[in-house]
């Protein structure tokens, strides 16, 4: 879902590295939060100025939708980052074990 990439392995060192798409994902997620805030502020202004509950409800519905998608994307990215940290820990443990085995 959402086209997330797993971490990548550096072909030279064998060390896991975060995928470059993760940087863009942070921007996408924050943009979603800003849009949700703008929808919420617009709904409040719309209701206060014109008393239009239907228009305000539509904007709030959009804010909830965008917030939900942003939250889901952020949660998935956090899971990928956790998997990455675990892979780095395993890599470093293997290096440490190999270094101690040489002595």
Record field, number of beta strands: 2
Secondary structure tally, helices: 2
Please tell me what the overall shape is: rod-shaped
Structural class determined from secondary elements: mainly alpha
Low-confidence stretches: none
Quote the distance from N terminus to C terminus.
47 Å
| Amount of helix | over 70%
Mean pLDDT: 91
- Order of adjacent strands in the largest pleated sheet: 1-2
The major pleated sheet works out as: 2 strands, antiparallel
User: What is the radius of gyration?
Assistant: 22 Å
Q: Estimate the strand proportion.
A: under 5%
Run of helices and strands: EEHH
What do you see in this structure?
- The chain is mostly helical and 103 residues long.
- It is built from two helices and two strands.
- The chain has helices at residues 21-50, 53-102, and strands at 8-9, 16-17.
- The chain has a two-stranded antiparallel sheet.
- The protein is rod-shaped.
- The chain starts with 7 loop residues before the first strand and ends with a helix.
């Amino acid at each position: 879902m959402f086209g997330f990439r797993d971490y990548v392995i550096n072909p030279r060192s064998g060390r896991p590295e975060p995928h470059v798409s993760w940087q863009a994902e942070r921007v996408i997620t924050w943009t979603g939060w800003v849009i949700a805030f703008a929808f919420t502020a617009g709904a409040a202004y719309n209701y206060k100025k014109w008393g239009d509950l239907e228009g305000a409800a539509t904007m709030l519905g959009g804010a909830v939708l965008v917030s939900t998608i942003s939250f889901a994307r952020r949660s998935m990215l956090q899971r990928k980052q956790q998997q990455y940290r675990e892979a780095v820990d395993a890599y470093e443990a293997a290096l440490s074990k190999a270094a101690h085995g040489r002595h």
